[in-house]
Every structure is written in C-alpha cells, then in structure tokens.
Write a structure and sequence with these properties.
By secondary structure, this protein is an alpha/beta fold. It is built from 10 helices and 15 strands. The relative contact order is 0.16.
C-alpha cells in the first residue's frame, strides 16, 4: 500500500481525496518508480479542483512531474536504483502521475536525473523550468542574442516566468517582466528582471501593429497579451508561446508576421523527444543559478496539495510548489 491523491468521478460527483492505494491498482507500464517529489502545476490545480476537464480517465492520480528511484524495470535503459525524472507525456491526465508515493510508467517517458540535481531540486525546476528552457532554446535557434535588445517575459510571477527571467538574465539578456502583482517587484528584481511593467498594458485589445520594442518574448499568458506582444516585437524577432493563463484565444492579425518577419514559436513541453528533453535539462544544469531555487519554489507535503490547488489557480501562490509525497 502507498499514499496518493486519487481523483474520481461517478454519480456522486467529482472528487479528489488522499487515499491508501494498493500496488495492484497501478496502471500498466514497464518501469515502477518510488516517487520522492512531485509538484503542483496549473494543470494539476485544474485536475484536482475539476474546474477544467483535463482528466481523461478515472480514477486518476494527478501530477505532471515526478522525480524518484526506479523500483522495478523491464526497460533496457533503466535498472533498479536509477534516479529518474519525468515531465509531461499526459501523466496526471490520461495516465497516473506523480502525486503519489509510487507510480508505474512507460520507460520511454523517463530521462535519467542529471547528476547536478537532487530529486528535490529537479522538482523545484519541474515542467516550469524545463518549459522555460525550451523557450530559450527556440529563441537561440532563431538567432536571438542579448545584443538585439530587451526580452519580454509575461506571467512573470508564475513558474515558467520566474525561470525564464532567471535564465535569461544569467545568459546576459535585459529582461522586462510583465505582472499584475505589484507586491512582487522585489522578487522579480532578485530573479534578474531589469524592468517591471503592469500586465494591464498588454492584456486589453490592441492594434495589429505597435511600436517595435522587444527583441523576443516568452509568453505563458496567451489571448490579448500574446497578440500585443507580437504586435510590439521588433523585425525578425521571435515570440515563444507556451501557455494560456489569460485564454486560449489569439485575437491578432498576420501583420507582425508578414510585415516584420516576426516568428511565433509554439512550445509543446508534453511530447518532446528524449534527446530534446536531455538537452534542456543539461542546459538547466549549466545555466541556472541553483541559489535561486529557494526563492522560486516552496515545499508542501502531499497532505497539503488538495487544499493548495484552488489557491494556485487563484494566483495566490508564487513560483513553484514542490510536493514531498512522503509527508
């Protein structure tokens, strides 16, 4: 038996509860992992609260991230005792995820935990830091350099935004952070933001083209914010889009793309091939200032995760929520 959060839906409604789960209930897979840490992401908040239909099978253990130790392996790449990390692949939605003390998975979804990280540090980074690095790799692929000018980071207080600021700053970029939380200015400055703007300047309907300002953008907000960011990106700049906190819509025109040659790069963190995942995590090991992890993240126990989910969705939690599944 092991502890885990189990989401169920039946005639009596939708509910998430902390339960004792039997090993025989584990789903199919060729690697069983003893989980050390997981996380609470925006998608996990939606799953636990049921406020969006992200869960596709019931019962379901949420948790799109996990780090832990291989307990049983039928996969050629992993042996008992190996430390591994997982992000995405639909776990916590269509396959049991990391918010439990044990899980069974497809070994192809795992990557070895880089030696630079402990399991706790890996989850302080999690999908948010990994996604931020995928965004930066997209900017670099398109030739964006610090000399070209400012980089805008929207949703700056969220997990992706926090890591994007920290990484870009350390790589030499001048970062402008967009946030609606004026109380967090000191936090964003500590991460490396050179300037902070109010998200209201970007979140309302705007013009098809605006004055050129950004060499590049990392956007986790979508909707009008993404449209306005594209409209004010410099000629041949790149906008990496990885989230939809404001909305899934994109009320924009083609003007920035055909008149200025702006590139809109979509970032899908869920189904990246293994080589890209390994590259992103190795770059995180090189480029991230580990001293910032306690500033960006805080830890809770598995027993606190259900209560924390609605607060996360309401924007009341800063940065990353790491979940120690063994307390």
């Amino acid at each position: 038996m092991f502890k885990g959060i189990l989401i169920d839906k039946d005639d009596s409604g939708y509910r998430a509860t902390l339960q004792e789960i039997n090993d025989e209930q584990l789903p199919e897979g060729d690697v069983t992992v003893r989980v050390a840490y997981s996380t609470l992401n925006f998608k996990d908040g939606l799953a636990i609260t049921g406020s969006s239909p992200v869960v596709r099978k019931f019962p379901m253990v949420p948790g799109i991230d996990l780090a832990g130790t291989v307990e049983v392996s039928g996969h050629p790449d992993y042996k008992v005792g190996d430390l591994v990390v997982l992000n995405g692949w639909g776990v916590g939605e269509g396959h049991w995820g990391g918010l439990a003390q044990k899980t069974r998975l497809n070994g192809d979804w795992l990557i070895p935990l880089p030696k630079a990280f402990t399991t706790a540090q890996a989850m302080a980074i999690g999908t948010a830091g990994y996604t931020a690095m995928l965004c930066i790799l997209a900017l670099e692929h398109n030739g964006v350099t610090p000399e070209q000018g400012e980089v805008l980071v929207t949703g700056a207080n969220g997990g992706v935004g926090s890591f994007a600021i920290a990484l870009l700053s350390r790589l030499g970029y001048r970062v402008v952070a967009s946030t609606g939380r004026t109380s967090e200015h000191d936090y964003l400055k500590q991460l490396g933001a050179s300037e902070i703007i109010d998200r209201a300047t970007l979140s309302e309907p705007g013009k098809p083209l605006a004055k050129e300002r950004w060499a590049a953008v990392i956007d986790s907000v979508g909707s009008h914010t993404l449209a306005n960011a594209c409209a004010s990106t410099k000629a041949n700049g790149t906008v990496a889009a990885c989230g939809l906190a404001q909305g899934m819509d994109f009320p924009a025109s083609v003007a920035p793309f055909i008149l200025r040659g702006v590139t809109l790069a979509g970032i899908n963190s869920v189904t990246q091939p293994k080589a890209k995942r390994v590259l992103a995590w190795n770059r995180l090991a090189e480029d991230l200032d580990f001293a910032l992890l306690p500033l960006i993240s805080h830890e809770i126990g598995l027993s606190e995760a259900i209560e924390a989910a609605p607060r996360l969705l309401a924007g009341q939690l800063r940065g990353r929520v790491v979940v120690d599944v063994n307390r």
